[in-house]
Amino acid sequence: MSEEKPHEMSHDLHHNLQVILQENQRLAEQLDPAAAAIIPLIQHANRVFVVGAGRTGLALKAAAMRLMHLGLTVFVVGETTTPAIAAGDLLLAGSGSGTTSTIVKAAEKAQAVGAQVVAISTTRESPLAALATQVVVLPAAQKQDHGGTISQQYAGSLFEQAVLLLTDAIFQTLWALDGTPAQELWKRHANLE
Ligand SMILES: O=C([C@H](O)CO)[C@H](O)[C@H](O)COP(=O)(O)O
User: What positions does the domain SIS occupy (predicted)?
Assistant: First the structure.
């Protein structure tokens, strides 16, 4: 009996990079118009908190650094020095599945205190989406979607890349609106690294 092999496997590194870029290109062309709504929510928030687990969390940490460069007050949920979220704050919560328990719990708490919750996910039908003020859907595979039809990449890789790309695009928009020269933003970059 032949073994099922849903993903197209290739040893060719150039081919694999092309697959990844093409998947991200396709995703960008299908970008949820709701994504633009994140811009004013960030602009009007007292403070921005980001939360995500695993690789999704890493992408959001990268986004948090860029928001810091813009001069926003931004915290990564789970860091030792991150304070309590409050009304007027924004929680930017990323979860491809929308079910990761720590992320759902953080959104529950944020909603309970009157903070806004933006969910970046692959679906509107999830516990996380149900708690969100705004849901931005990225049409990518979820981490346990092993069928290979939505993405040739392993697990939630496409979603996690798309979170980084989307939040970098959000940064570019916020930077254009702000207009501060790159040299000025750079003064905020960590000088203890
Ligand atoms: O680290 C991850 C994993 O490698 C999937 O590709 C996920 O980002 C992590 O497990 C969080 O999952 P989601 O909340 O579903 O994004």
Answer: 38-180
